[in-house]
Structures are given as C-alpha cells and as structure tokens.
Amino acid sequence: MDSQLKIGFIGAGNMAFGIAKGILTGNVLPVNVKVSAPSSRNLGRFQELGIPITHSNIEVVCGSDVVFVAVKPHLVSLVLNEISQHVTDRHIIVSVAAGVTLSTLEELLPENSVAIRLMPNLPCLVQEGALLFARGSHAKQEDGALLRSLLHRCGLVEEGPESWIDIHTGLSGSGVAFVYLFAEALAEGAVKMGMPSALAHSIASQTVLGAGRLLRDSGKHPAQLRSEVCTPGGTTIYGLHTLEQGGVRASTMSAVESATERARELGRKSAARK
Amino acid sequence: MDSQLKIGFIGAGNMAFGIAKGILTGDNIPPIGFQELGIPITHSNIEVVCGSDVVFVAVKPHLVSLVLNEISQHVTDRHIIVSVAAGVTLSTLEELLPENSVAIRLMPNLPCLVQEGALLFARGSHAKQEDGALLRSLLHRCGLVEEGPESWIDIHTGLSGSGVAFVYLFAEALAEGAVKMGMPSALAHSIASQTVLGAGRLLRDSGKHPAQLRSEVCTPGGTTIYGLHTLEQGGVRASTMSAVESATERARELGRNASKVTPKVDYSCGCGYCNHNKMHSNSILGTFIEGHVSLQA
Questions:
Q1: For a disulfide at A171, which of B16, B115, B159, B178, Cβ 3.0-4.6 Å?
Q2: Any idea which GO molecular function terms this record carries (chain B) (predicted)?
Q3: Higher per-residue confidence, B281 vs B255
C-alpha cells in the first residue's frame, strides 16, 4: 500500500477515532491523516496521536485520497452536499453512517464517485473490531482491497453485498451490548452464590474475553468447543442445561433478528425521506 | 521473585500447559509442546517434587490421592503444593500431605491456554500471605489472578470454569440469528466470535459496570435497544444467572461427594506389567494410564 496515501476523517467521534488508531498502527504516518469536526471537543485525542486537525470539511477532502465520512446519519446529506464539488474520481468516499444506503450516497456525490459503505463496531477502539463493507457501483475490487489493507489493524474486516450490512449491525454492532448484558447476568449469578460484586464482574468480563479469544482463534465450531469442555456429570453440562431450559438460544437469535429488522426499517425510513 | 525458583508440574494436560506458558516470561509463545518450550520432562513424579520448590498438581481429580500418596514423603516444608484438581478440598490435600505442608488450591480456566485466563486461589492452613504472593507473581501472565476463601472456588468454577461454555453457547446463538437473517454461516460465526472477544475486551478494560456501557451504546430508537428488549423478554438474564447457580451447586455437590470417599490405594492393577510406583511409558507425562490403577473406596 502506498505509504504516501492521504486519509481524511469528517467527524471525530468514537468510530473515527478507533479507525484512525487502527490505521496508524499500519504504515500510515500521522502527518498523512487529517480530521475535521465543527467543535474542538473531540479533536484533542487525535492531536495527541499527531494527527492534524481542522474545522473545514472541504480542506479534509481536498487533501485526502480516502475520506471517511463519520458523522451522525442525519448529517450525512448536509456534509456530502457541502463537499460534493470537491470530490473527484481519485477519491474513495467511505461512509460509516448507519442506515445510509449506497444509493443515497451515490445520489449525493458526483456521478462515477467511488463510494464504499462500512459498518464497524465499538471494539475498533481497542483494535478488536468486526467490520463489514459493501462497495458502491463504481468501487472496484482494488478499492475494496485498499480499504481492507487500511483497516486490517482495526480488527476483522470482511466484504459483502449491501444487504449484509443490516445483519452485521444487528449481530456485531448491537451484539456488543448483548454481550454486556450476558456478562452482567453471569456476574449476578455469582453474586447470588456468594461472591462479592466487584470480583464477580471482574471475573465475568475476563471469562467472556478469554472464551471469545479461544473461540475466535480455534477456528472450531462453538458446539464442538462446547462438547470438548463438558466433563460427564460435571458442572458445565448442568449449567448448559439450565441455559437451554431458559430458551437462551432462541431469545438470543431473536435479539439479532429484532436489531436487524430495526436496522432495515431505519434504512427504509431514511431512503423514504430523500 | 527469585528467578532460581524451581517449578514442577505433575500432569501435562491443558491446564498444566497453559499455566506453564504463562509462567515462562515472554509473550506470543507459539502453540507448541512442553519440550519445544525448553521444559525438561520426566516420567517420575518424585523427580519433579524433589527438584522443585513449587509443584503444580495438575492431574485428574480421581488421581490426586494416588499422586499425593506417592510423593508425600518427599514433600518438605519448603515446598508449595498447588492443586488444580476440581472438587478436591484443601482439607483433603492437607490430609494426604505431611503435617504443616503448604498447600494452595487453584481454580484456573481454559483461556489460560491463550494467557487470558481467570484464576482464583485459596490458601491452605499453613500457606502464608507470602506464599500467595509468590503464586500470584508466577501466574500473572496467565490472566486475571485473584485470591479468596475456599468457599469462592465453587462459585468461580460455575462462573468462569463453566462460564466459558456458556459464552460459547451465546456466541453460537448470535451467529445463528444472523444466519436466519441471511448471512452465510461461516461468516456469521467468525463475526460473532470477534464480537464476543471485542466486547469482552472493552468490558474488561473499561472498568465500568456493564449496565453503564450498555446505556452508552443505546441510540434512542436504534437497533440495540430493540435487540436488548428481546433479550429481556426472553428472560435471558434470569436463565444466565440460573446457569451459574446450577453449575456452582453441582460443584458444591461434587466437592461433598469427593470428601466422603477416602480411597485406600491399591497400586497394582494386575496387568502384569506394572508394580509399585512404576508407570508405563505413555504419551501423557507424569500420569498413570487411566484404568490401570484401581481405587478402593
């Protein structure tokens, strides 16, 4: 990847920051990154990384090859309208805005613009994100490959058709909060059994992290791993039976379903508003 | 910590290996065996004990009394014996070891294998605070290390021993929800496990209460709060608490059953090949071949 590549961020929230951190751990120099935001509130942590800041979105676009549009969804059309005349065919515009479709993006940008829609998740902040992107009609495979190489330090990066973005939102965007709920419940079970709360929460979160590591790095199906740890008549199978009796599996599937359907609904609403 | 400290392992299964990896300083140890790590091996438990200051007893629970009977006369007051065997109480350990032996009971969990374990230990009656501190310093690269009264060990078993499998089930269900929505299975599983790992990292490193973190990610009317409502409607929180409860109660039950059994050990199995204290050579170091030694209760 060209180490002289210039990367710009419009918007300076958590997602922009997480992605910027990941990009810098590759071979992109801070001086080749620029970020803009209307207020200085969120710019401090970018400055600490050595990244130049500005209040001008246009300055970011003119000085960058790849531009991440990381503003709240309702601000996207505003921002794109503002920068549109400065977008050329050498730019790659990557939108991180939930619910804003490629079709909307391409409408707001000049004809033949290269647009990519990216759905990251919060753990990008600690370089353990799960990111899915979908290429717009003029984004070629090489543009996808470039994005992938920029983002690979942020976590797991995958490509797919746009229809998978809403599913990814439900599974891995909202999924993070589902895991928080599960971890909290594990801890509270231990508190009921007599363990002090702070310790229980600490152990529960370490357990979730450790199990996630094993699961991700083993490459095995979770059911396979589960069988491997069930001593006959042991504590684990007793606990698993309780989870099954409570229908945890079905409810969890339903949670991903609800979140995905809400993502689809929000996408339809924003398309209808155009 | 004294870098000349000698550490011994009786038993060479996953737990022993995970702990050994953590003890050896240096990160990013590739997935290789004890020998590739440069650790000397032997088939003699007694050799391990005589040559070590800290001895991890990492054999299956039903083999513990066998092993302790075998090594007992070689255990001195300078040894620290750390048992990793589920359900074997400190009282049992101290009965099988010489008087005044320093015994510690340790409950690790499987992610020790990747240096992200959750470990809880309880000190025996002659184990002093410094012994606990020494163990803590040995284990800190294995993951989170905490100390507590013995009564917390069963809870730790339910929460973080079995808890690993509960997380696997949850991750599988997340993936299957995505598959129902139209994502291919392999990708869904891959993203689900990364999501669990990432969320666990954020949770552990933030130091905030999970409910606080949850609130921070709920956009009003957004996808997350819709999904969370579904989890609540399904009573996932209650079932998960109950799972920890079931596993903990089973651990307590197993502990009670084990202490009722005082095995008189018969060394000879009558197979014609083994006799007192001699082991068959086999692929698992330091343990007797299961089925070749009988325990008489």
A1: B178
A2: pyrroline-5-carboxylate reductase activity
A3: B255
* DSSP 8-state secondary structure symbol assigned to residue A219: -
What's the rounded Cα separation, in Å, for the pair B171 and A223?
10
Find chain B residues with C-beta within 8 A of A175's C-beta: 174, 192, 195-196, 199, 227
> Distance between CA A194 and CA A161 in Å, rounded?
49
Report the gap between the CA of B80 and the closest CA in chain A (Å): 25
Which residues, in sequence order, are CB contacts of B126 under 8 Å at separation 6+? B94, B100, B101, B102, B103
Sheet containing B54-57: which strands, arranged edge to edge?
Answer: B7-10, B54-57, B80-83, B102-107, B117-123, B143-147
C-alpha span between B18 and B117 (Å, rounded): 9
Residue with tokens 């330090």: A153
**Does pLDDT of B29 surpass 90?**
no
A234, closest residue in chain B (CA to CA): B250
- pLDDT score at B148: 97
Joined tokens for residue A229: 């740890």
**What percentage of residues in chain A have a pLDDT greater than 70?**
98
pLDDT of residue A274: 57
Q: What is the pTM of this model?
A: 0.89
Kindly provide the ipTM of the predicted complex, given to two decimals: 0.94
Q: Is A141 exposed, middle or buried (0-12, 13-18, 19+ CB in 10 A)?
A: exposed
At A74, the pLDDT band (50, 70, 90 cuts) reads confident
Q: Tell me the HSE value of A194 on the side-chain side, using a 13 A CA sphere.
A: 14
Of residues B211 and B291, which shows the higher confidence score?
B211
Task: Annotate A43-72 with three-state secondary structure.
Answer: CHHHHHCCCCEECCHHHHHHCCCEEEECCC
| Residue B125 dihedral angles phi and psi, to the nearest 5° | -65, -25
Q: Which pLDDT belongs to residue B2?
A: 58
Best mutation target among A156, A248, A265, A268 (most B Cβ atoms within 10 Å) is A248
* B251 contacts in chain A (CB < 8 Å): 235
At A127 the three-state DSSP class reads coil
**CB < 8 Å to B140, chain A:** none
Q: What is the residue-averaged pLDDT of chain B?
A: 85
> Nearest CA of chain B to the CA of A103: how many Å?
21
